[in-house]
Target: Sigma-70 family RNA polymerase sigma factor
Amino acid sequence: MARVLRRRRRRGAGAGAPAPDLRDEGGLQAAYDAHGPELYRFALRQLSDEVAAQDVVQEVFLRAWRAADRFDPELASLRVWLFAIARNVLVDELRRAARRPVPMAPSGNGRLPDRSTGRSIDEQVMQSWLVEEALQRIGPEHRAALVETYLRGRPYAEVAAEQGIPVGTLRSRLFYGLKALRVVMDEMGVRE
Model:
């Protein structure tokens, strides 16, 4: 019985029910009601910005509506297809955010950018570019571990579960990733 339930969960909720027609307003609304909140939480975890997460969900359903004829329930469930679209939208959003200049006006919380480091904005931007370049030069497993835990501040257990590895392996990747990052930054001539 447990195997049957797991199979049903893998195929998505209501695996026996036909997927809603995304070209129809009612079908799109049904898909949004079923998967919108989960997509929002997924986007919010990645972006840490409520407004941007809402925009991502809106873009996911807009793209799903435009590409409704390409959805094949034989290949994947509607949930899987929507999350694949969400992943692409998030990649686009993260790339767009990386190209945005550092804000010179007060941020959403009414404060100016952090100047407690004693460095100018130019130095902060240069430092972030150097770190980004150094991260590109280390292995993908180490980079993913460092980005998710140190830069995004996510808990080790959550990141390990997402990557399908034990927490101890994640900690090992962090240790060796930091060592590799230090070596790369030394090679780049970054001192600090």
User: Anything to note?
Assistant: Helices lie at 2-11, 25-47, 50-66, 78-99, 121-136, 140-151, 156-163, 167-187. The chain is about 65% helix and 0% strand. Residues 25-47 form the longest helix (23 residues). Confidence is low (pLDDT under 50) at residues 1-16, 102-113.
